[in-house]
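Sample intake — Piriformospora indica-insensitive protein 2
Collected from: Rubus argutus
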Amino acid sequence: MALLRSFSTFTLLLLLLLSTTVISQPQPLLSPAEQDSVYRVLDSVNPHIPWRTLFPDDLCSYGPHGVVCDYFLQDGTDSSSAAQTVHVSELSFGYVSDFNPNPTCSPNATIIPLLFTAFPYLRKLFFYQCFNQATTVVSVPQIPASFGSGLEELVFIDNPSLVGPLSGILRYFTNLRRAVLTGNGVYGNIPDSVAELVNLEELTLSRNQLAGEIPISFAKLKKLKVLDLGGNSFAGKVPESVGSLSQLLKLDLSSNGFYGQIPESFKKLQRLELLDLSYNRFNNSGVPLFLSEMTQLRTVSLSGNMLGGQIPEIWNNLGGILGIGLSEMGLVGKIPASMGVYLRNVRYLGLDNNKLEGTVPQELGLLESVSEINLENNSLSGRVPFKIGHKMKLNGNPQLCVDLGSSFASGGFDKLKECNKQQKPNPAHLTVDSSSSSSSSVQVVVPSMLMATGFLSMIMLMLN
């Protein structure tokens, strides 16, 4: 019993000692200069919020969501040691969701040059829907060479009033891993210096005002997994060097002005899961046969290019594909039955607005996972051999027909004729020449009551 009491006393003393140590351990402290810089940046984003009053203590310990700090060695190397200095490592602005309640931006939010001078240890900079006033233009300040050597993520999403040349934004970020500039007012060409960002894993520049061509030097970006240039005014031929980006998982060049043939080198992108080349000016090469070699594809869209030709038999190796867009391409010929045999996981199949002809393959009815098959505005004919209801879009094919009473009848397919609708015959009119009573001049001599009875009997016989 005495030993037990002694052990309990020792345990209690140990717990008290540990709790005292934890309580006395100093909390992270941001330097006064860096703390003041954070307040000033917060004021520039939303001057209507009293940041200094709401968060009067150390911002690394009790700051708003979106302000993140970390420990660093004197040379800027990350460390888990509590003895190292504390600096701001992430700044995120613009409310995203309740799970990411970053500081909200006011209608007159702006970017002050201090943002690019006061935080030498910044690893992530994020702005979401902060600069979207049509009457206000927010320019990106000149970024000094001393800033950005440690920055790893630069994310600006849906800030249409944010204007500046791309060459002036992607400067000096030698360690950048993610550059996401989408839905902004960024303009200009892709500078050759981007190819020097050898650690880059994602380059998303969609929905800006960019133009020019893809630099051949992109081949240096060996770690790139996402390349998204969609929704700009890029033009020219896509260089074969893009096919050397062997780590790519997503390649989106949609809604630009690229022309010529789709590079054969794309078949080297064996890890690619999404390929979107839609609505460019690729032409005269047909659906690329090398797609059959890209077995990891989950989504492919070539819509809106005048590639022409027939749909090739390339689907036996693409059973994992989920979405196929081959609309508005000038395709001719028949729909291969193999698409219904092999594409068992497909959710969307778009073949509309082409010049396809022939019947709808019965095998398409095997696609149980599909949400939509769009065959509108072709020259298809004959009977639709299965019932798939609202999943099928068929209008604009006047020679197609559907079964009476099928799910099509109530599914918005009123422009399609019914295959098995009964056709009523047009009975021949019986005439009697009344100009002569001679039997030789009578064309048809039938008493009127007998004629009516015989006609009704004929109709009943036909119906039976």
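Post-analysis note: The helical segments are 2-24, 32-45, 51-54, 59-62, 166-169, 338-342, 448-463.
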